[in-house]
Every structure is written in structure tokens, then in C-alpha cells.
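Progress against Task 2.4 (sequence-to-structure conversion) is shown through the following example record, which the project officer requested during the mid-term review.
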Amino acid sequence: MPLVSSSYRAKGIFKSGHFSTIYSAKVRPTRSLAQIRKRLELSDGDFIDIDWSYSVKKTKKVAILLHGLEGNAQRVYIKNQAKLLTENDWDVAAMNHRGCSGEENRLYLSYNSGRTEDLKELISHILSFDTYDEITLIGFSLGGNVLLKYLGEETIIPSQIASGVAISTPLHLRGSLEQLIKFENFVYSKTFINDLRKKYKRKMVQFPNAMNAEELKKIQNLLDFDNLYTAKAHGFKDAYDYYEKSSSLPFLKNIEIPVLILNAKNDSFLSEKCYPYKIASKSSTLFLETPKHGGHVGFHMSHKVYYSEKRVLEFIHYKE
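C-alpha cells generated for the chain above:
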């Protein structure tokens, strides 16, 4: 019965989900971290950029980090998690999703919440080094959904993948969309749609036959974007078809390695279905931790180390 009783207790104003979310994304200091960028050419002619950080000691362990919607490998939650990992004998490969590394990707399609192909290619690429005998997957928000879906949809995963951690993850995409368009989340949804509209405008220059200014005017919210770009670019009938087929929730029961899902109860991005208590209670591998506080990727403990970062280290050392 892997329902984890959380020891996390937020203090003072960090008990507010909105404050912890915004502070952690916009105010929290980023720790100094050396990153070396390496490009991975993909089988479909596109590319992704990987920002590597290395342990001081030679190691055979590597953590693959996956960022959230419209994030990148320079976000504070990625760099601070990577810093702690490198201090504890892990190399880190922080993946930038297509079009998120500061350079537009080459193809009309990009990334989405359920597209696991790029993660699969990165894992194969890393295994080709014949350097690492242990891999852990760590995803934040959208990145958490990607890694959980990957682990649940694959009948056989490489034996080197030993664990996974999904933090502040929208396991049920339609429910999370419905949460994000609520008035209480106006600031977040407005920020996301502004960034996505800018991305659409840039890609419109690359693909004038597939994208146009009239459609851009119609994109006023996240549902519009997913209907007019995400679904069309990635082969879904519409946004709701995309949400249904890309949500990791139906895949959780198939996961066979130890995985921790850390979702705060006061995360305003998440709907009720993003807390799969029943599935976890029947699983021997799925560990669900739902602290009262933490907001969205905002598990403040100190400026240097967050509770979520500490829990990642604890959990990936777990052995059955």
C-alpha cells in the first residue's frame, strides 16, 4: 500500500499555494551550476538540446530531468535539483523539449504532454555510451506526465531504468485544463497563453501554409491553442482527444519500477483525478505522496534545498 505519509510542513506564508508557486518560479535564487549543452539529432530530422551537468566523482548513475510547459533546462527547479544530484554522485541530463532551448525546432510538430518519443530516443542515446548502469527519470509538471506515460506504455523498458519521480504532475490533462481556466488561476493561464501565442507566431514564419494570422487571433486560451495547434500538429482529432490519449493516469497501473508521485493538495493546477489514491493503494511500485502544502513545484524548505529535491534523493536510493 504505497500511500506515503508526508513529513513536509510548510511554514508561514509558504502555506499559501499561490505564494509558494509564484515565489518558487519567479523569486527563488538559482544555485550555481555548470551545464554543457549537447545536441541530439533525432530520427525524424529534428533535434533536442540536452544540458549536461556532472558529478565531481566519477559515477555510473545518471538522472534525466524533464521540465514543464514552456519551461527549459535553465529554470530554477531544474538547476537546483540538478545541483543537489551532482553533489550526491549523479550525472544529470536535463532535456529541453523541442523548441524550448532558445532555438526553434525544425518541424511543424513540437512537444506535448504525452509525446514520449523524444525521451525514448534520449534514453537510447545515453545507453549507447555504455557508461551508466543506473538511470532515474525525474519530471516536473508536464515532464512528470511524459515520464509516467512512458513507463506505463512501454511493455519492456531498459533494465538500467531503476526509478522515477513525478512532481506536481497533471495526471488527468482535461481536469487540469479545467482547473487552469478557472478565475483563481488567471495569472498562470495568461502567462502560459502569452508564451504559447509567441511560439505560434514564430513557427508561423517557418510554416506559413499550416499556420496563419487568422488562427492566431482565435487563440485566446489554452483550449484554443490545443485545438488549433497541439492537436493538429500531433495527429489528434481535437484538444479533448489529445487530453484523453496523452494523460498518464490510465498508464499508472502498468508501471513496474518504483515511482514516486509528489502532488501537493493545494496545487491549483491539479484536479481531483490527479491524486490517484485508489491506484496507488493497490500497487506495489507506485508511491503517492500528497502533502497539504507545496503549491505547484513550490515545496519550500530553505532557499538552498526544497523538500521535493530532498525527497528525490531519498526515493531514488529506494530498493525493493
